[in-house]
């Protein structure tokens, strides 16, 4: 079997701490109540590109509990991989499980989370979301002080209630004036 080509490391040698060979986030996985609805939203409204699908998968033994920490009789009905431009891939699941919690966690809940999408023009992106009937939470917040100065952000909700965010800082953030290192940014070449 031929070996996959080696991928050069653009940021130099691996630091002496942390995971050996760490490159970054490859994908973000999350579960939705209706996979077709989620695929439609992320492809048609957000602009992600669909790739491949797997499923269903279940196990008569304890494999699901042992490997995924879910109920042993959980059924992963389907999953779909999407690519979101220059950011990480999404692995979107639809499950059926006897003990499934169908309530979407909020940011303040343990396990709460959100996905943030960098856009070049936040006003145009908000208009796009609203034209697609997406609920935008409030008006964009403009940061004019502190390390995030220069950033504008606003939250919005997927049709099933998942929290998402638009963020933009085309002139950079204030923290960048004080240090040479940068947080990862999808619109800039990585060092």
How would you write the strand order of the largest sheet?
1-4-3-2
Which residues form runs of ≥5 with pLDDT under 50? none
Q: Total helix count?
A: 3
Element string (H = helix, E = strand) = EHEHEEEHEEE
- Whole-number average pLDDT? 91
How many strands, which pairing sense, and closed or not: the largest β-sheet? Answer: 4 strands, mixed
| Termini gap | 33 Å
Mass-distribution shape: globular
CATH top level of the largest domain is Alpha Beta
Instruction: From the 3D structure, determine the CATH topology of the largest domain.
Output: 2,3-Dihydroxybiphenyl 1,2-Dioxygenase, domain 1
SS-derived structural category: alpha/beta
Can you give a write-up of this model?
Strand 3 and strand 4 form a beta hairpin. The chain is an alpha/beta fold and 191 residues long. The strands form 2 sheets. It has a 4-stranded mixed sheet, with helices on one face. It folds into 2 domains: 73 residues, 2,3-Dihydroxybiphenyl 1,2-Dioxygenase, domain 1; 85 residues, 2,3-Dihydroxybiphenyl 1,2-Dioxygenase, domain 1 (Roll), CATH 3.10.180.10. 15% of the residues lie in helices and 27% in strands. The chain is globular. The model has no long low-confidence stretch (mean pLDDT 91).
């Amino acid at each position: 079997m031929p070996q996959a080509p080696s991928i050069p490391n653009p940021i130099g040698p691996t630091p002496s701490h942390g995971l050996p060979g760490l490159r970054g986030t490859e994908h973000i996985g999350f579960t939705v109540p209706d996979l077709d609805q989620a695929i439609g939203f992320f492809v048609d409204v957000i602009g992600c590109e669909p790739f491949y699908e797997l499923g269903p998968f279940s196990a008569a033994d304890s494999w699901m509990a042992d490997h995924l920490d879910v109920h042993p009789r959980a059924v992963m009905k389907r999953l779909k991989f999407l690519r979101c431009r220059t950011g990480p891939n999404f692995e979107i699941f639809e499950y059926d499980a006897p003990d499934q919690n169908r309530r979407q966690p909020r940011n303040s809940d343990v396990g709460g989370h959100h996905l943030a999408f960098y856009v070049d023009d936040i006003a145009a992106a908000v208009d796009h979301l609203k034209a697609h009937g997406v609920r935008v939470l409030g008006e964009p917040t403009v940061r004019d002080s502190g390390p995030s100065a220069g950033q504008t952000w606003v939250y919005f909700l997927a049709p099933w209630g998942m929290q998402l965010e638009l963020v933009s800082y085309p002139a950079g953030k204030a923290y960048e004036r004080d240090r040479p290192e940068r947080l990862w940014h999808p619109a800039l070449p990585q060092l």
